[in-house]
């Protein structure tokens, strides 16, 4: 329970929390709790939503789908709707661990570039505790699933924490809508925590630490928009 208390302090009072984390360096309990709850919520959505309808709505907007006959398109939709029910929760579970390792490895590598003293265990502690912010996101997601009729709503359109929630893709166009969905409170919060944690552990300047985190963060958003 002490590690959960520390993780909560990290996301609510990060400068103080990360200073304490330098001594403790724990992260598995808050990280696993977030992953398990997130996986359960994603699975609940996947098995209760009308995935065939949701996928149909998405693919109808795709120019690539125009190349297929109606029979071929129906086969693709049926296959994807069946796979999505299992792929979404499995992806949420496995993807969380992959995300943890990739982000921690990036922080560890950048610390070496700056010749700063940051072990891989330190990088895991920073990332794993910052990840705890997504527990709050998951709780909001669960509440939305319980009080709304979400069956025909794409998962990215359920969370009011991103700008895309307040607009339609038809009104903005695919690229701008994708950009808006990527501008998310919890994503920015998580990136900010990484920057503060990197600053506290490496003693690099706060500006340098934030640039270290936000340059790739913004780059990934730009790439995702360009690929739409």
In short:
With 228 residues, the chain is mostly helical.
Index terms:
single chain; 228 residues; mainly alpha; 77% helix; membrane
Walk me through this protein's architecture.
InterPro entries: Yip1_dom. This is Yip1 domain-containing protein. The chain crosses the membrane at residues 27-47, 86-111, 131-150, 183-202, 208-227. It is found in: Membrane. It contains eleven helices and no strands. 31% of the residues are buried. The chain has 228 residues and is mostly helical. The chain has one domain (2-226).
Topology of helices and strands:
Layout: H1 2-12, H2 14-24, H3 28-48, H4 51-60, H5 70-113, H6 120-130, H7 133-147, H8 169-172, H9 174-182, H10 185-202, H11 206-226
Distance between the termini: 43 Å
Tell me the structural class. Answer: mainly alpha
Low-confidence stretches: none
Number of domains: 1
Order of helices and strands: HHHHHHHHHHH
Sheet-strand content, in percent, reads under 5%
Mean pLDDT: 90
- Tally of helical runs: 11
Provide the helix percentage: over 70%
